[in-house]
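Worked problem 6 (solution included).
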Amino acid sequence: MDLCLSMFPWAKFRTTKGALKLHCQLDDAGHIPSFAVVTDGKCHDVRAAKTFFNLLPDSIYCMDKGYFDFGFFRRIHDTKAFFVTRAKNNLNHTVTGQQELPKNKAVLADQTITLNGFYSHQDFPFPLRLVRYYDADNDRTFEFLTNNFHLAAATIAAIYKARWQIEAFFKFIKQNLKVKTFLGTSKNAVLTQLWVALCYFLLLAYIKFQTKYRFSLYYLHRMVREMLLERISLIDLLGLNDAKLPKVRDKDQLCLAF
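Solution. The predicted structure is:
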């Protein structure tokens, strides 16, 4: 999150630039954050993950190249969990095996590899799986790296594709929860606004789940925003639509007597 250094001097990132980072772990089951931490802009993604993230056994952690670190992968492996990420182009490795390719022509290769680099092999001395996958929709070829040898190669690619949900989450809170414009300039004011936005998001997700609300989370947020100052119960609010909203607003409009 970019900040004006003259107004937020405590968030110095570059010589003339300020910034904060929101590191978030998104639970794919409900598309809600299971963990979040705010750091200064200089904190690397991997360092935040190593320091703050709570790893659970039998979980699958999907991450982009910003978290590419074999020491971090070793921690996930030792926790008896799995990871899926994009392989770097300069990955120094040796192919030691080949899984049988499925009939799905999108899977170009499914290999077992070991790392050749001295430090990388020390950090992760175990076999890894390298899946080469062709994305016909974008006409691109991707290479995925994982320690999971049980799931199908196409499933590994689908898991990484689901990582886009974290981008959608950040886009939602930036565009709809007003975290690009801050009400205060102190560190406490900025952090308070960020945590309030995240708490509000979780409350919306909880209401949508408990009430089995059939519309999107954005539509529910829009209803709450439009009727925030109106005297209407939550049950009645969940039953509103674009046709009913103006009528309720006109009916409950506050009138001042002079």
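Discussion: The beta strands are 2-3, 12-14, 17-27, 32-40, 60-62, 82-86, 93-98, 107-115, 128-135, 140-146.
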